[in-house]
Each structure stands twice: as structure tokens, then as C-alpha cells.
Design brief:
Elements (H helix, E strand, L loop, with lengths): L3 H9 L22 H7 L1 E11 L6 E11 L2 E10 L4 E10 L3 E6 L11 E6 L5 E7 L4 E9 L2 E4 L3 E5 L4 E5 L4 E5 L2 E5 L5 E5 L2 E2 L3 E2 L6 E3 L2 E12 L2 E11 L5 E6 L4 E7 L2 E6 L4 E6 L2 E7 L5 E6 L3 E6 L5 E5 L4 E7 L6 E8 L2 E8 L4 E8 L4
Parallel strand pairs: 9-28
Antiparallel strand pairs: 1-2, 1-8, 2-3, 3-4, 4-5, 5-6, 6-7, 7-8, 10-31, 11-12, 12-13, 13-14, 15-16, 17-18, 18-19, 19-20, 21-22, 22-23, 23-24, 25-26, 26-27, 27-28, 29-30, 30-31
Length: 371
């Protein structure tokens, strides 16, 4: 179930301090009468998301940037995706001034065998325009990123399970997850109340790596690959089933999903490729929304906003119906597990972090202030 890339990601993770609260700004007031003193002691906690464009080509991509520091010196992480290529993450360090940002690979944390740098001008509103270059990775692109608010969330409660679990859905009262071939119903304290087995044809016990619930029906997916005309398409079948485990429909989508979210009869799929959200009905795509954050996995939908986790740094992104990033959230506690699910409802977000190598999972309940 878990690939070798997960183990490599676990081995390469470097603990970083989580900033309790941040405001995206580059000028701060200080009790000192000397503005220079303020510049030297100011804490920075900055985030951007945006697009990459290769001049003269149709190739494009996206990236997210998160840095923290004091004065003008910062370090942090970027995640980038060039279309038709893999999503990658890098530890970075550099400087942030009022009108310029320069970042390069942090070789103190990881011995990269190539170079990578970002050199961008910053306008008074935090917009970055400039370049990202790596000879070793054959990257030479322009970037256009906007600042986004980073919001710290302190968990209201957490509960550790002595099993590896994945996916989350909220039914208005209880949470649902999956482990060891069965779906689990849990109360908000994390106590397992019920285990449910769902069988596909030929009595195959099945759980989904994407799960949502709406109109008293669960929706999951079955991944499959279809060959034709010399190409292989990675697709998903959306499977609807009842609370007692009865499968009532199976509909083919035109893409592979990495997250499902539903509310008010609208079912959305987070495409595993191309940074797209698809509104679907009986497997048919009715609407497609583009967004600019690379590396997202799992999906929750509250009727107005989408919520998703970053596979690489576990941050939570809130995205509106037009694909614009409204904010990025991070927990004030560190969990070295992998993102494993997200659900929302009643002004709450629940996230699941799972460590398959230790055979444990942890649920976190977070309160969100939604405008």
C-alpha cells in the first residue's frame, strides 16, 4: 500500500520549527527608535503560491514557497511541479528584502547533486516575479507568485490509534476512516464505534484511498489503468455505497482521483495530475477548476471552500470555488507521520496523520474561522 517513495520521504524529513502565528508582511513596528534595529530582529514567516512559465514553450507548472527567519535571513521549503513531470520538494535558504527574494538549496540539510535558485523582485503587495533556474534539473522558468496568509491552528484535541489508517469523512456526527480492509466509524474523541466491510464483485473486500459522504451515501474510488492506441490512462471508478456496506453504483471517471469531497449534492474530485478539481455526476465531468498548489492529496468540501493537504509538508490549503488559494494552515504541533486524510464540518477540520512504519495514526481536531 505504501511505496518506496514514502520511505525516502520519511528518511529525508528534517524537523523545522513551527511558527505559532504569522502575518505576511515585510515591515513591522518596533519599540526601538532605530528602524535598523527592527529590521535586524523582525521575525519573518512568509508564504507564496504561483505559476511557472518556460519562455517560448507551452510548458508551465506551479510552485509553493514557505520560509521563516529573523531579519533578512530565511530558510524553508519549496514544492514545484512542471507539467508532465513529477512533483518535487527542496529545502531552501536565502534572503528576503523589501523588494527582492533570493533562495538557493540548503546544502546543510541535504547534499543535493545540483543547483537550484530563485531570484525574484517583490512588490509592496508581496507579489513575486522573477526566475527559477537549475542546470542539473534543466529548469529555466519565469515565476509569478502571490503572497498568501499563513494561519497557525492549535489542535482542540488529538487521539492516537494503534493502527495505520487512511482517509477521513464526516457524517454530521461521527468520523469515518479505513484500516486493515474495513471502514471505521469513530466518535469525535477517536473511539472506534463500528467496523464496516464493503465487498465488490467476486466478494473482494475493498477500501478506498479517497472517501466522502453526502446524501447518506459514501463515495470512494477504485483505481484502474486502461490501455489503448499505445497509451495508458490512469482512471478511477467512483463507487457509491450505503452505511450498511451495500454497493449501489460504479461509474467510470475520465481521470485518476486523489481525493473526493461532497456537500449539498455536489461531488468533487481532486485530480491526481494537472492541478485540477472536477465536479462530477455519475462519473461525468461537469466542471473543471484549475488551482496553483502542487502536491495536494485528499479533499474535503464544505459547500463553499475546498480543503486539502500537502503531501510534502502536511500544510492544509483552503481553496475557493474559482481555484484561488484563500489561506494555508499549519498545526502548532509537529507530527512526523504522513498526511492520510481530511474532513470538515460544524466549523471544524479533522486531519489524519499516519505512520505506517510504526503502525500508528493520529487524528487532530482543529477549529477554523471561516468568513
Amino acid at each position: 500500500m505504501y511505496s518506496e517513495s514514502m520511505r525516502k520521504r520519511a528518511d529525508s524529513r528534517v524537523p523545522i520549527a513551527i511558527i505559532a502565528w504569522s502575518v505576511i508582511a515585510l515591515v513591522a513596528f518596533s519599540c526601538s527608535n532605530d528602524p535598523g534595529d527592527a529590521a535586524q530582529t523582525q521575525d519573518l514567516s512568509l508564504s507564496w503560491v504561483g505559476e511557472m512559465l518556460v519562455p517560448g514553450k507551452q510548458e508551465a507548472g506551479s510552485l509553493s514557497i514557505h520560509v521563516d527567519g529573523t531579519g533578512t535571513r530565511v530558510d524553508g521549503r519549496i514544492v514545484l511541479e512542471i507539467d508532465e513531470g513529477p512533483v518535487r520538494d527542496f529545502w531552501m535558504r536565502g534572503t528576503v528584502d523589501s523588494d527582492r527574494v533570493f533562495l538557493e538549496l540548503n546544502t546543510d540539510l541535504l547534499a543535493y547533486g545540483y543547483s537550484l535558485s530563485i531570484d525574484a523582485a517583490q512588490d509592496p503587495f508581496g507579489r513575486l516575479t522573477g526566475s527559477i533556474v537549475s542546470e542539473g534539473l534543466a529548469i529555466d522558468a519565469e515565476i509569478d507568485c502571490r503572497a498568501i496568509e499563513r494561519i497557525a491552528l492549535t489542535p482542540l484535541r488529538s487521539r492516537e490509534l494503534n493502527r495505520s489508517a487512511s482517509v477521513l469523512a464526516f457524517d454530521g456526527t461521527d468520523l469515518w476512516s479505513a484500516s486493515s480492509g474495513k471502514y471505521l466509524r469513530l466518535n469525535r474523541e477517536g473511539d472506534v464505534l463500528e467496523e464496516l466491510g464493503v465487498f465488490l464483485r467476486d466478494e473482494i473486500l475493498w477500501t478506498s484511498t479517497a472517501l466522502t459522504l453526502d446524501d447518506s451515501l459514501f463515495r470512494g474510488h477504485l483505481p484502474l489503468s486502461v490501455s489503448g492506441d499505445g497509451e495508458v490512462q490512469n482512471l478511477s471508478d467512483v463507487i457509491s455505497f450505503t452505511r450498511d456496506g451495500a454497493v449501489i453504483s460504479q461509474d467510470r471517471m475520465d481521470h485518476r482521483t486523489s481525493g473526493l469531497g461532497a456537500s449539498g449534492g455536489a461531488l468533487w474530485s481532486l485530480g491526481s495530475e494537472g492541478r485540477k478539481l472536477h465536479r462530477i455526476d455519475a462519473g461525468v465531468t461537469l466542471q473543471t477548476v484549475d488551482y496553483s498548489v502542487p502536491g495536494l492529496i485528499y479533499l474535503a468540501f464544505d459547500g463553499d471552500s475546498f480543503w486539502s493537504q500537502s503531501w510534502f509538508d502536511s500544510r492544509i490549503y483552503r481553496i475557493d470555488g474559482g481555484g484561488e488559494v484563500l489561506g494555508v494552515y499549519e498545526m502548532t504541533v509537529q507530527d512526523h507521520g504522513f498526511p492520510a486524510g481530511i474532513a470538515c464540518g460544524d466549523g471544524r477540520i479533522w486531519v489524519l496523520m499516519s505512520d505506517p512504519f510504526q503502525g500508528r495514526s493520529t487524528f487532530y481536531e482543529l477549529e477554523t474561522a471561516i468568513d
